[in-house]
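FYI - complex with manganese (II) ion, inputs then prediction.
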Amino acid sequence: MKKKLGSILLILIGCVGGSTYSQQQHGLTPTFHQERRDELRYLMPPHSVAVLFGAPIRNRSNSVDYIYHQSPNFYYLTGWREPHAVLILFSENQIDEIGNFDEILFVRPKDPYHEMWEGKRLGIQGAKEMGFDRVMAKENFKNYQIDFETFEQILFFNFQNDIINTDDVSDLFDLVQNFQSKINYSEKALKSNNFNQDLLRQYLTQLREIKTPEEIELLKKAIFISVQGQLEVMKAINESMTEREIQGIHEFVHKKYGANDVGYPSIVGSGNNACILHYRANNKTDIKGELVLMDVGAEFQYYTGDITRTVPASGKFNDQQKAIYQIVFEAQKAGINAARLGNSFRSIYRASSQIIQEGLLNLGIIRKPEEYRKYFPHGVTHHIGLDVHDWGEYQDLKENMVITIEPGIYIPEGSDCDPKWWDIGIRIEDDILISTDGPINLSVDLPRHWKDIEDIMALPSALDDFKLPPIK
Ligand code: GLY
Ligand code: MN
Ligand code: MN
């Protein structure tokens, strides 16, 4: 019965999925990307041209590359997920023998041989279905006639000089070289003529820091998935688990929901490892009696959640763990409360850090207020979006920004305080939408209070009976 339903569904999907574009699982519509390009064009100075390149393919070793991840800026403006692509955007309409145009996208054409090995390419037709009128094969970029001297400003990002040159004569390496030769690029020329490497960053920062409704929908999905991962782990965790196993449960749940990746390497650190801020080894096998800090974010359709919970492996916080947890909890509450329109990013930090300062003084962990930085050495908030640390000006809070609030206290072994506090590392991180109605916690379905966490941890898990034979 189940199987039959499956094949009927497959037939139906086959019928509706006619076009190349719709075959690509896509989070945003072509209109979204088109509007983003229009917004950028609107910001660009008169008589200017912007040239953007896709991300390079990165080699892991020998014949194996890392999974390709498009540059967030390129994706934001185009929706294009394939490598070896160039976007040229003009501030005004251009005209040639074919007609009017204000943008050109160069892409990899279709190629049955390579598609057999590496999977489908959208090709020129696919790019047209994504809203680009003028699309050309990347092979044509080199000989495409464009007189960059006639533009008052040419906007482009710094060349990273980390692109592999393969034997494809129009790979990204060659596309960048061709562009450099078209504009007579040199380090010296950078200072003296119509090149501008700052404006693109400034404009894309301005655009990307405010999320559109479509982006907020995708962020909500990425956050929902991240929350489910944390909930399942809270139910499943026991003291015989390893850090790696816990990481696996988070990421298994993400994938059940169709998340393709995590937005950053998952952090699952127990005991002293919880005090390593960007810990990613996740290789401790004995978590007995420890607190486990889990900073894990699902990436869904290129947008990422960023959520941290810290839980006791045993299911119960001890007195020291609870005392520190309460300080971080209150610090986060104060930070969220400060996340209001017109307030500054700095004011969130001040609200949270003041609580941490007072809390550590009260427990005798520090003697002077300024010593709190030893145990709380990071910021409290950042934008999330296409990047986990998303682009933004970080000045005043504006409507439809989505930010994290993530205070923490970390007391590694050997710290200058009573050893009973050692090996406690706690961070609580939630994802907050800035709105005219005040801060909206998008990850509110994931409990934060210590008692609520203990209650969830006492629930049974579908993984309780999941047993595998020992490794041979
Ligand atoms: N997951 C990295 C951070 O919280 O900033
Ligand atoms: Mn964060
Ligand atoms: Mn995080």
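DSSP finds 15 helices and 19 strands in the chain. The pocket of manganese (II) ion (ligand 2) is lined by residues 306, 382, 404, 406, 429 (CB under 6 Å).
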